[in-house]
Amino acid sequence: MNTQAESEGRTSGPLAGVRVIEMGQLLAGPFVGSRLADFGAEVIKVEAPGKGDPMREWGHHRYEGKCLWWPVLARNKKSVTANLRDPRGRDLVLRLLETADVLVENFKPGTLEKWGLGPDALHAINPGLIIARVSGYGQTGPYAEKPGFASVGEALGGIRYINGFPDTPPPRFGISLGDTLTGLFATQGVLMALYWRDAGGGGKGQVIDAAITESCFSMLESTLPEYDKLGVIRKPSGTGLANVSPSNIFPTREGKYIVIAANLDTMFRRLCEAMERPELADDPLYSDHKARGENATQLDGLIAEWSAQFSMPELTERLERHGVVCGPIYAIDDIAQDPHFQARDMVMRMPDPRFGDIAVPGIAPKLSETPSEIAWLGPDEIGGHNKAIYRDELKLSDAELAQLEADKVI
Hints:
The chain contains 18 helices and 13 strands. It has helices spanning about 5-10, 30-40, 70-75, 85-95, 110-115, 120-125, 150-155, 175-200, 210-215, 225-230, 265-275, 290-295, 295-305, 310-320, 330-335, 340-345, 385-390, 400-405; strands spanning about 20, 40-45, 60-65, 65, 75-80, 100-105, 130-135, 205-210, 245-250, 255-260, 325-330, 345-350, 355-360. α2 crosses α8 (about 175-200).
């Protein structure tokens, strides 16, 4: 697949004109490239010759032998190949980096330096280059050289400990949350660095050091000061939050569950009216946030007994009529069919020669003045843009390309 948008480059989106070289593989680093590509950056993904990113094959489910994760992660990107262990491969990447705005990498710390591609060397040829480095533990510190995956980063970063139910082993999330969280933090760093470089930094690039452990730790809200000043170690709280009520899941007549979040005083009063129990709002056991938290088990039991009388549509209608925040717990089939997700272009159908007509997640967030687009669903062929970039841009001859291919440099 080689669309006109792929060949000529995209011109839409707030990051149009920004060139990103994406090195590394799997999820955390490439997720940064995906965020930037969604908003118009030209992202050139560097893959190992013959193998490519393992994400091309990850995921259990296949459509006619094709991985269904790849078009989500690789959309709007270009693919070139380069053997970074070969000086000739590194030279090709260096030539691309001479005029690039951003490098994204998620190798083990020290790998770029070993190849002569560390920040000092890269800034010597391109002082304005922004280098986003994603790793398990960061580029410095006693754990820096350890290999790190999302599962370990989530555990060490604290979010695994508070997940799940009391007195049970802490479960993992059903997605690689640590990877995507770190990708978002790294993307934020790239955008800040671009702004500073161009607005007040005199064109100077810098290094973004994004660690999975720190990204997870940063999501822990008030747990650190609670421990520091009071010795409190927040525990898993199951389907709700400790000392916050009502903010939990409640059963419906058909055995489904709905989230009801009515922990504000005014919202709780509305819930009491929906339950036809207005006196509960003035009961000293439930009259304010602190009291409801201390009596959460009893209060949640009362609400569950009431909610189980209604079907999901009946309960939703009643709660919404009274202005109570609520919502069903969606599986992916519910999301795919929901008119709100469809109306906001979050379930987008894209034509693709590999998959036919396929649904993919839309772009978030929405920008009013610089809307972006999904132009294509990623390169199917490993190194599919070698000629367009190496021959047409770097001016390598066909004979040179053929030799590099024969030597497995590209």
